[in-house]
Amino acid sequence: MAEYYLGQIMMTGFNFAQKNFAMCNGQLLPIAQNQALFSLLGVIYGGNGTTNFQLPNLMGRAPVGQGRGPFGTNNIGQSGGVENVTVLLNQLPQHTHMFAANTAAGTTLTPSAAPGTYATATISGGGTESIYAPPASGALVPLLPAAISSVGGTLPHANMQPFEVINFNIALNGVYPSRN
């Protein structure tokens, strides 16, 4: 049997915590029954520090490590990011969708250059054909409103990494890690 360090976090592929481990789901533990683990974790992840402390919550999160974060802050015990994101109009860069057209004779029915130029094409063997012919009399219809209107309705979309196969578990018993 392998020896584990107290407080060691391990990734597992099953949906339960193995013997002497607890899932990293943010649960509160009593200090009286877990004094050694409390001496390592303290209240970094939460708890009141007098009767209980909290385990890390790695559900739906990715572990980052320790040290200085991107803005010069210590990232131990801090959680960041969100599980759902709402993209608003003010977050999108201003842009337009141009449609180019030309009355000159084209050489193909499906131009590949961007922006595409749609025009009359010469067909091999002679003659011309237009992919956008004038409408028949009385056949004009308005564009479908959903094709030209805003979409999304400020509803959030999921913003999570794959998560179905890995759980994080922390050792409740094991070798107390030495500082040297």
TrEMBL record:
Pfam families: Collar. InterPro entries: Phage_tail_collar_dom, Phage_tail_collar_dom_sf. Gene3D superfamilies: Phage tail collar domain (3.90.1340.10). Residues 7-63 form the Phage tail collar domain. This is Microcystin-dependent protein. It comes from Caulobacter mirabilis.
